[in-house]
Amino acid sequence: MKTNKTITTSLTVLVGIMVIASGLMKAIHLPWSVAGLVKFNLPNSATALGLMEMSFAILFLIPKTMRLGFILLSCYFTGAMATELSHDGSMLNPGIPLALIWVTAFLKDRSIFLGAFGH
């Protein structure tokens, strides 16, 4: 049981740091981060996208708002995946964080996926 809690906590911290750092890099317009948005004609949206990403991650990290954060992060990264695929990009860039978010959410609260059977 302690191992499961350690893994869940580690994944939660990893996801939080990864997504918040990604959002921060967009929000402060780091050149290489904004360059990735240029190929999708979205350089002017970097600040908004970064703030959204950080906000959704914070909601995901707070236990009472974890479900809302999970839904918003899932929508955000699914949209990023659709954008990547529509421009012949790689779905791995948004796919890896999305997979980590889903695994972390499952470990934190199985009822998100299993409903009443998750308890």
Automatic annotation (TrEMBL):
Which key words are in the record? Answer: Membrane, Transmembrane, Transmembrane helix
Is the keyword Transmembrane helix in the record?
yes
- Tell me where it resides: Membrane
Q: Which GO terms describe its cellular component?
A: membrane
Give the membrane topology: Multi-pass membrane protein
Which sequence ranges are marked TM in the entry? 7-28, 91-107
What main location does UniProt list?
A: membrane
Q: What is this protein called?
A: DoxX-like family protein
Instruction: Give the source species.
Output: Olivibacter domesticus (Pseudosphingobacterium domesticum)
